[in-house]
Structures are given as structure tokens and as C-alpha cells.
Amino acid sequence: MKSKPEETFPDPSLESPEGVSGIEYATLDERLKPLYLLADSQLLFWKDEAGTPFVHRVRARLETVEPAAAYIGASNGDDPAFYSIFEAAMDEAGIDRRKVILSELDADALAFVDHADWIVLAGGDVERGWRTFQSNGLSQILTRRYYEGALLMGISAGAVQLGLGGLVAAASVAGAPVSEEPPETPLETFRLLPHLIGAHQENEGWQSLAAAVRRFGGHARGYGIPAGGGLLYHRDHTLEPVRRPLVELRLVGEEITQSVVLPGGEVNEDSEVNEDSGESESVN
Hints:
Layout: E1 2-3, E2 35-38, H1 54-59, E3 68-72, H2 80-93, E4 97-101, H3 107-115, E5 118-121, H4 126-136, H5 138-147, E6 151-155, H6 157-162, E7 165-169, E8 184-188, E9 196-199, H7 207-216, E10 221-225, E11 230-233, E12 239-242, E13 246-252, E14 255-262, E15 266-267, E16 271-273, E17 280-282
Parallel strand pairs: 2-6, 3-4, 3-5, 5-6, 9-10
Antiparallel strand pairs: 1-15, 2-11, 7-8, 10-13, 11-12, 13-14, 14-15, 14-16, 16-17
């Protein structure tokens, strides 16, 4: 086991593969709160070794005495069952001011999002949610709210959306003739953190995430969050695993290498990912 070296960040003006924009890195701003990326909803009800609920630690980052929390369920088609999980988590956090934000936005919903301290992007289908955000304006509104100091949390598909994006079927990209496109093509999302995110894909050996890393190319890295785990992306660009180690995928030459990032900033030796089987092989 060795300490993870300090990450360096490339010039965002460097040329990227066709169909993928250059990766941008946010400037250091004291207003920015960590981005919370959760593989699933388990962390919302998890307590650390000291018995402190995870949601209490999240709420402690909010300056408001009576914070407001918004739930956005576009990725799951505004399924009320998912909102009930959010409500239970907010009960645990002691937050009474909360509201579900439906895909068909009205003035009250927009006003609430504009003043919400904690905004949750729910799980579901990455592309479905992102297309909705583009059509109803939340793609721009949520980006603005992040830079204004709101705390954004993405769960499963929501976590993926906060990153660079992912791969979707070529036919779902507007105006893309299937015959002229690869089977999958990049879908760029919020890009609030300059990495690709995979959630609870450990049973498939992170093959989907590896395919996205290869397709996005360039300096894109992938971070896999196992079930029950989370990732905090801090304003100084550091990553903090929560509860479970992260899997880091990088494109080195023609190979996808895999490392395990542990809480505390340690990383194991690299291995190569067999993208057909999803298994990894040590290269040391």
C-alpha cells in the first residue's frame, strides 16, 4: 500500500476526442461546498463509528439555521416512492422545509430551488433525467446554484450526472444517424467534477465505466462508487471516499488500469481491466 500522489490537473484547452468537450476545472471559491455523490440511498441512513448519522454531517455544512432541501426526481419520472426515501432522510436530518421538484416546473418550484440549501438529484435513468434538465432549464439553474453555494447531492444516476456524463445509445442523440455512429456515444452532463462516475457496478467489474473512460479519452478518469458508498468532491479538487473504497479507472496507452482509493487518500497498485470479462489483472 502506498500514499496516493497529489493529483495534477491538465490544461483544459488541450484537444479532446471528437464529440467530447475539453475538461474544465472549477476555480477555488470559498462558497463552493463539496459535491456529494452516493451510489445509492444507503448512506442517507448510515451512522459512522461514533454513531453520528451521515445526514447530520451533511447538514453541518449548511450555514442556514432552518435550511431548505429540494428533491429532484426527473431521472425516475417523478416516482413518489423515491421521494418517500428522501423524506425519511430529511426527518433524520431534522429538516422540515423540503419540497419535491417535479419535471414540469412551476413558479413555486423555481422559487424553492433558487433558495434551497441542499439539492438532491435522485437516481433512475441518467439520460432521461438529463434530457429533462435540458428541456426545463434545470441544467443551467443547478449549475448556477452550485456556484452560489448550494450543496448538491447526486444519488446513483444523479451522481453520474454531476460528473462528465456517460455513454448512451447513438440513436438517442438528436440527429445522429445510427449507421454513422458507434453503438454508444458520449452524453455530457453537468461536468461539475471533471471525472466520469459509475455507481454500484461492481458486479459487472465496472465494464460500463471502463467503456466510458475509453470513449471520452484524453485526461478523463473514472471513479466507481460501490453499493453503500459515497464520494465527496471538494473545492480543492480532492476526492474523499465515504464508507467504501473507490475504484479509479484510467486510460494508460491502450489499456484501462484500475486502482482502489481508500479513505485517507491511499491507493493500491495498478491493475489492468479485462473489458470483456470485467476482471482485473495485476501488472506489478
